Amino acid sequence: MTTHRLASRSTLAPVTERRQIAPGLVVLRFLHPHIASTVEPGQFVNVLPKVGFTAPLLRRPFSVYWIEGEECEIIIQDHGLGTSILANTQVGEHLDVLGPLGSPWRYKSDDFDTAVLVVGGVGVAAMPLLTKHFLKNEVPFSTYYGARNDTLFADEYLAKVRYATDDGSKGYHGTNISLLRDELEKGSHPRIKLFACGPTKMMQAAIALADEFNVPCEVSLETEMACGVGICQGCPVETSVTENVTSGKKFYLVCTQGPSFLKEQIVI
Amino acid sequence: MQPSNGTGEVNLKVNLGNVEFKNPILVASGTFGYGSEAAKFTDISNLGGIVTKSVSWKPRPGNYPRRIVETPSGMLNSIGLANVGVHVFVDEKLPYLAEFDTKIIANIAASSQEEYCNVLEHIESHATPNLAGYEINVSCPNVKDGGLSFGTNVDMVHELTSALRPLTKRLLIVKLTPNVTSVAPFAQACEAAGADAISLINTVVGMSVDVFTHKPRLATVTGGLSGPAIRPIAVAQCYNARKNSKIPIIGIGGITSAMDAMEFFIVGASLVQLGTINFVDPDAGTKVINDLQELMKQKGVHSVDQLTNTLVIEERMKALGW
User: Which among A48, A225, A233 has CB closest to B62?
Assistant: First the structure.
């Protein structure tokens, strides 16, 4: 019989810090040595809202926002029963956490010299570990962060940020995509690659921009998931390629084959 | 139920047909993939058996998203039988699963009797030592062709079961739908056609609507409801099948604990399958097996057989026809 080393079992992780970083956005810090020591930028964890209850029933996926020592952080946007319960978890209470899950950003690929992080809304959660890597390895990068107004930025772990707001209350007046377009139109940009995470419309616009300027672009998707580990097949994204695709060459699974995809791989 | 003999020994083994399962806890089709995904999170050799994700003759991509909606104590799914097809199944999945000390039951979905037969024969000709049998999915609510159209017609269930029976000496299990007025005639049809067991229930047809957009939450409008929300339905259907037939029952529906599993044994199930809970915790099966052993010890029960079909109904209710 084959013996199998288990990558991970769900763990009860004590919450060590809870802080509100923007309206409706709460950061929970919890002790989880396994995740803290193994997670890569772009991976996520699947967290159960209330241990031992059947409503809410399923886990909720969250990007790993930050790691420090043996601790990890996630950002929770309170927008329903499950996330509300999670966002109100207090220091000393426990989270049931499964992870790290999913595939990381392709952040070590050699198809770029300069990284451009395109960030919107709660998509910011996928960016700090990427930022940390680029800073540590002295990879040139810049961050284009868009929000409706200046109260909604969660930029504590970001760097080299260009802000854009819909109402002009901070930075560029308009979208981060328009701001980036202005920069790209100035020309003379080195070999860049876009790493985008945010609302679907922002990621669609990032892909269109990358197509226009013929630069690589990777997007990190968020979708409903049941299991987060490739079992339920509940989180498909339509694919534009026909190789290496699970179950019949039409969809990728966001949980295991993503959440990050190259723009050529998917249709969103 | 017999009193404890004081030794505290519990034997979880269960026999079904000519197959011995080391314990009565299986994992349900579609909730455990083909084993490899879950193997990263649990020791799948602990399980009594694995019912693999439905396979059809050709691969199926599954339905367009959205495929999943959480509902109170449950979830709606509309996966649409996404699967690798029988050829990849026998070339890759069965050999992988042969490495584990657990019984494998291959779940088959098809859109015609001919396809069911072809898929079963193809697997049979590539059988691995731990392939214990087949579960015939006549109850998927999420595909346009086949599936539920078989499972809601007693004559078709009888004819299909009769056609499949001569093709294998392994277990032939028919997975029934709850989306019928009474499951009793279906249980009887499977028994008459020579099936070794029935498994019930598959998901209950359900629907959820976004009241802001007036759109159904699932792309396919309706889907299959699973999870603890459907457990009382499942227990009632197993009870009904037991009352009206002698065919062994594999109970399915919202089981999350040993206590839940025991309800199914008491109303007549010989084994059970865990489903949706695997999505919450891929290690749930192992936990339920350990807890079941403890629970049986506490109750002074030595074997699952001593639990199966032990429902107690008050005499005065019996006299009233219950």
Answer: A233
* A2 belongs to a structural domain: no
Residue A260's domain comprises 221-268
For chain B, the structural domain boundaries read 14-319
Helices (H), chain B: 86-88, 94-97, 113-124, 148-151, 154-164, 184-192, 231-244, 258-267, 277-280, 284-299, 315-319
CA distance A194 to A44: 20
Which 8-state DSSP code applies to residue A239?
B
Chain A CB within 8 Å of residue B61 CB? yes
Which of the residues of B are catalytic?
140
Which of A86, A14, A77 minimizes the C-alpha distance to A48?
A86
The Cα–Cα gap between A169 and B202 comes to 54
Q: What is the CATH number of the domain that holds A185?
A: 3.40.50.80
Closest CB to A231 among B67, B73, B282: B282
Residues A225 and A215 in one domain: no
Tokens of B161: 């079961």
Span between the terminal Cα atoms of chain A, in Å:
43
One domain for residues A139 and A178: yes
Both tokens of B146, joined, read 């086949």
Residues of A in Cβ contact (< 8 Å) with B291: none
Look up the ipTM and state it.
Answer: 0.89
CA dist B267 and B307 (Å) reads: 9
Q: Are residues A77 and A32 in the same domain?
A: yes
DSSP codes joined into one string, A132-188: HHHHHTT--EEEEEEESSTTS---TT--SEEEEETTSSSSEES-HHHHHHHHHHT--
Domain B14-319's class? alpha beta
Please report the pLDDT score of residue B8 as a whole number: 62
Taking CA atoms, what residue in A is nearest to B255? A54
Give the mean pLDDT of chain B: 94
For residue A124, give the DSSP letter. Answer: G
DSSP E strands, B72-152: 74-77, 103-108, 131-137
Residue with tokens 């629970």: B295
Chain B residues in contact with A229 by the CB 8 A cut-off are 37-38, 40-41, 282
Q: Which two tokens stand for residue A97?
A: 């956490």
Q: Is the dihedral of CA A26, A12, A73, A19 positive or negative?
A: positive
Summarize pLDDT for B95-123 with one digit per residue, the tens: 999 999 999 999 999 999 999 999 999 99
pLDDT in the model for residue A242:
63
Asked if the model's pLDDT at residue A8 lies above 70, the reply is no
The pLDDT tens digits of the residues spanning B22-76 come to: 999 999 999 999 999 999 999 999 999 999 999 999 999 899 999 999 999 999 9
| pLDDT, tens digit (0-9, with 9 covering 90-100), for B282-316 | 999 999 999 999 999 999 999 999 999 999 999 99
Tell me if B90 sits within 8 A of B121, measured CB to CB. no
Q: pLDDT-derived band of residue B260, with 50, 70 and 90 as boundaries?
A: very high
Residue with tokens 């019996």: B318
